[in-house]
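Hi Y.,

Following your request, here is the sequence exactly as I used it, all 82 residues.
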Amino acid sequence: MSTAPQPPTSAERLATAERVRTAEQVVNEVREAMTAAGVILPSLRIDLASCSGDAKRPLIELGRCNLDMARKLASVLRGCAR
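Below is the corresponding structure, written out as tokens. Let me know if you'd prefer a different format.
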């Protein structure tokens, strides 16, 4: 017999909220840095599923972009690698 999942405790809810806040800060940092480099990723966002439940490592979804922006991103990355 399996037991029903228990609702999250207030400590777990607080920990999840903190992970989401941190992920939002990182998304903003990445967006600002990319914008300064002329790279716009319109789908840049938090992967909310990675911030909830047992997930302890939030992920940032870079999303999709058009070919011109992908080339711009590649150019910026090549410049940083030098």
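The radius of gyration is 17 Å.

Thanks again,
Q.
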